[in-house]
Amino acid sequence: MADRPATSRLPVRPPALLAVAHGTRDPAGPVVVRELLARVRALRPSLRVAEAYGELVSPSLEEAAAALDGPVVAVPLLLGRGYHALIDIPERAGRLLPGAVTARPLGPDALLADALAGRLGAMPSVRRGDGGPPRPRDTVVLGAAGSADPAGAEDVRAAARLLARRLRRPVPYGFVAAGGPSLDEVVAERRRCGAERVVVASYLLAPGRFLDRMRACGADAVSAPIGAHDAAARLVLRRYDEARSRTGEPVRVC
Of the candidates 211, 238, 248, 247, which has an alpha carbon nearest to the alpha carbon of residue 99? Predict the structure, then answer.
């Protein structure tokens, strides 16, 4: 029997990472998302990373999906559970990309607490004696968008606990949209309790109307959104690897 000809094995291309942000009318929002994804690509240059939005911004999830071939892992660039992370994105991705796997949302996670601490530490001083990072007698409040989903609200509570552990101080939380407690009420209550200064840690991925509401809540200062922080980029890849492991394929840890 003649020997069978040797067959060459082509390297298997890993699934593409389809990053799906919520979307905002603020033009600064997509800029921040692209900066974050640039950091993701820098951490793992061999990985295909595609940008998409659930609404308001192009490319939409549908537009991005049409440009992809092969297996895909969709990673919601969302900080907690809710309709978009649990229903909207998985259903749309599954319909558009048969076999696609959707990762869980980014938060809560200790890496986000690291990013929040970094944003607080980088706050500039406005003038002598004002502005700058939180001081020991200042109160730090976690400001979040809010969620009508109880699971999403619990995720914010968990994020506040993680930030409190990271900063080694109590961190209450407040919402600027759905649910309660409202951020402005929390800030006012902290002042009544004698806080020397109240600083809001912006638990948002990118700028938009929620950041505008935080800046109007009566706090002395509001940190920048998490944005293109290295810890957030590592977390995007962690969620990708977690979801990819469900497919049975080997994963790479960066």
Answer: 247
Q: For the chain, what is the radius of gyration of the CA atoms?
A: 20
Give pLDDT tens digits for 7-44: 445 557 899 999 999 999 999 999 999 999 999 999 99
φ, ψ for residue 123, nearest 5 deg: -65, 130
H or E element at residue 52: strand 49-53
**Rounded distance between C-alpha atoms, residue 102 and residue 73, angstroms:** 6
| 61-65, 122-126, 143-147, range with the lowest pLDDT | 122-126
Count other Cβ atoms within 10 Å, centred on residue 126.
11
CA distances from 34 to 14, 104, 218 (A): 21, 20, 31
Which of helix, strand or coil describes residue 134?
coil
Residue in the block written with tokens 């640039």: 38
